[in-house]
Amino acid sequence: MDWQFVFSQALTQAIGPTMLVYALGAIGLNLQFGYTGLLNFGQAAFVAMGAYGLAMTVVVFGLPFWWGIVVGLLAAVVMALLLGIPTLRLRADYLAIVTIAAAEIVRRLARATVWSEHTGGSDGMRGFSEPFFAMNPYPPDGNWSFLIFSMENGRLFVDFGVATLQYSSRDLWIMTVGWGLVAFFLVVLGLLVHSPWGRVLKGIREDEEAVRSLGKNVFAYKMQALVIGGLIGAVAGFIFALSRANVQPDTFTTDLTFYLYVVLILGGAARLFGPVLGAALFWFLYNIFSQGLSQAIRADVIPSSVMHHTQVGPLVFFLLGLGMVLLLIFRPQGILGNRRELMLDVR
Amino acid sequence: MPETSRGGPLRRTVLLLSAAFAGLLLCLGVSSSAVAQEALGVHGLLKDQQDRPISGVTITVTDDAGNEVGTVESGEDGTWSVELESEGAYVVTLDESTLPDGLLVRSGRPQLEIDVSSDRTVLFPLDTQLADGVEPQAPGDDPSEGESDGDDPGDEGTSADVAEDGEQLGELENEAGATRAVSLLFSGLHFGLMIALAAVGLSMVFGTTGLTNFSHGDLVTFGGMMALLFNISFGVPVWVAAIAAVLLGAAFGWVQDWGLWSRLRRRGTGLVSMMIISIGVALLLRFATLFFVGGERQRYNEYVGQKPWDFGWLIITPKEVVTGVVALVVCIAVGLALVYTRLGKATRAVADNPSLAASTGINVNQVVRLVWTIGGGLAAMAGVFLSINDGVKFDMGQHLLLLIFAAVVLGGLGTAFGAFLGSMIIGVFVQMSTLVVAPELKYVGALAVLIIIMLTRPQGILGRRERIG
Predict the structure, then answer these.
(1) Which end of chain B offers a freer environment for a tag, N or C, measured as fewer CB atoms within 10 Å?
(2) Which tens digits make up the pLDDT trace of A2-25?
(3) Do B445 and B380 reside in the same domain of the chain?
(4) Is residue A145 part of a domain?
(5) Which of A29-33, A330-334, B353-357, B396-400 has maximum average pLDDT?
(6) How confident is the model over B82-108, as pLDDT tens digits?
């Protein structure tokens, strides 16, 4: 079996477009959960707001691309307000249940056939990403090479010897924008959480009553965190929608939120670079396992009587769940985190 | 979402399932070929529940004046098509006498009037169940539900079927008003009892330990799957398999608390961490099931195509009555045990205030272990009963979980009686709401109720205000 292929694929995905979606989604979650202690289990809905806001504005209403971005962001803000007003005064697990329910409502509404001519139903929508790729500075037929980098017919190869990364020119454009956004939000978040505002958030996470007794409006702070985190989630939705050039309701299941939590906890919650590191590692491991197992089955290293190739997906997700449990039991702070910061308790 | 590699056959099955009908279960209908044709005509594809094409079925197309335009038989692959010369209204009739034994058109309408303006798909949902407007058997699931991580954009044809089918269901549902409402009420009560079985455990675990257990839905799946194992693999009758599944469910609850949760409590793991761990457990269980059982909906070998009792005002299958009564008896028994037995009182004491209960000499850990055991058994029972009706699928519990949450929150988190009350309300609400909204949106209504309750009375019907602080 071709270990180099498996390794190359895993490395390619570890910094690729999908990883960026998860990194951005988890950065938003980091502000909400990591710094403020809000259990937002509906981040998938915020991602969906961004993706659908963009797609529907462009496809259904025929408005320009930038309007789609604005609408997506506004939708996320509205969603945050709708969820936050009833629940932010309640205990943390109430927010969890309400957000998970809201995310499921969003997904079911998006896939309903009742108004599928507007939302695309379970097939979703396409045809909104052209304006974005029209801005692509990478020529689709470039040919050059420089040290380990080489461009062949618009595909970039980065040859490290043991592994070769490769991206199409569309991927490159998505990655340029995506990594730009990640850097931007990391800077913004870094400034925010080290400001007095950020210290109040951490205070709320540690002891809400204490912060309230200092005269701070806890509800307003929580709401601001929810809104900002949701906005970053919506930006993840833009990248998600653009990188696939379509939106589909079933990609926004609650499982997406759970994987974002895995990413966040793996990297380390309440650490600036936690989500980025977590997302890279998550996708690296995911691809190592799924590609490795697929290759092993194809090469008959694992006989098909033991495992069929359709069982690779379930097995990898099973390992993911197991990893999540073990991680939280034995290293809840993840790679970068500080253990004392994650001793949350809601009762 | 990571793209899974179990794309192809599973996803097709799921899509075909969704295509079959929006809101009803237990049968696979007819779906069109995905190929858009230039020619004017009607066409379709006949399949049974197991997705096998049905050949040799006679289908006749007449125009609105009653003149026969064409008669065809479905081919080996189940497809049929009739070409038409002009647009207009036509009547498509499926000759039920040519269907294989035991199969019927589920909607009870082998004759459909359609307007043809372009090439059109006509669907005849086929089922081994009885026809004649039998109520949706399927409270526990929503067939338009597809676990589809990998996206495959090449399926426009299939979703056209969904739309088409939804349309026809819409017509159907406007028919029998009062009977339908009564039947929905009963199917709602039945569904409510199923939710209640699962909800009591969730609520009591929350009450005694404070844990919001996101893996409780998978205990429901576990029950359904264990009964499947006994029934299909070991060949025992369903009722024996059901008892075995409940016992195993209880044992599983006990093992989970012994091996995982009690240890975490002893370590002093935070509740939020435990909540996220429960999500991991849910993923782990769900995908282990998928790994071993596969993604198709499977059925037990008994009670699948049961002839319903028709009282005129109510059509109900015996299995629904039996499972409903058993569930009710069990719920009452649990309620009585909570009120009158020593252990029941101890449980309520722990749910009220664990430290106070501990200081009066109650062994809190023992009580919690008991709650997990009984909760696991009851959840397994709910899983078996739901599976007897609708078949068992690896993600059935996951979809039920949010309704259980809705029920528990509605009744008041941490209270057993509230959980029961909330479950009945949610069950009836979900089923009755299909009178007004499309069946595929029935869960949305229930979840919306959950959010509205949060707004107005977050402690629920029977909860106390202090719990929410």
Answers:
(1) C
(2) 788 888 888 888 999 999 999 999
(3) yes
(4) no
(5) A29-33
(6) 777 776 677 777 776 677 665 666 555
Look at residues A166, A186, A142, A344 and name the one whose alpha carbon lies nearest to residue B270: A344
Regarding whether B87 and B191 lie in a shared domain, the answer is no
Is A248 within 8 Å of chain B by CB? yes
CATH of the domain at B329: 1.10.3470
A-proximal residues of B, 228-257, CB under 8 Å: none
* Interatomic CA distance for residues A39 and B457, integer angstroms: 20
Domain that holds residue A123: 3-139+171-342
Number of domains in chain B: 2
**Is residue B167, in this structure, part of any structural domain at all?**
no
B105 and B191 in a single domain? The answer is: no
Single-letter code of the amino acid located at A193: V
Nearest residue, CB atoms, B280 vs list A252, A309, A325: A325
Tens digits of residue pLDDT in B360-381: 888 888 999 999 999 999 999 9
Q: In the structure encoding, which two tokens stand for residue B58, read together?
A: 């006679």
In this prediction the pTM is: 0.77
Cα separation, A59 vs A52, in Å, equals: 10
The amino acid occupying position A60 is V
Q: Which of chain A's residues have a Cβ under 8 Å away from the Cβ of B287?
A: 314-315, 317-318, 320-321
Kindly report, residue by residue over B60-87, the tens digit of the pLDDT.
777 766 667 777 777 766 777 777 777 6
> Do B414 and B467 touch, CB atoms closer than 8 A?
yes
Please report, for the domain that includes residue A301, its CATH number.
Answer: 1.10.3470
A29, A107, A240, A255: best to mutate for the B interface, most B CBs within 10 A: A255
Cβ pair B444:A121 closer than 8 A:
no
How many domains would you assign to chain A?
1
Query: Which domain does B228 fall in, by range?
Result: 179-468
End position of a domain, from candidates B116, B142, B168:
B142
Which residues, including other chains, have CB under 8 Å from residue A120's CB and lie 6 or more apart? Answer: A55, A247
Q: What is the chain B residue with the closest CA to A121?
A: B159
Residues B310 and B222 in one domain: yes
Closest Cα in chain A to B18:
A122
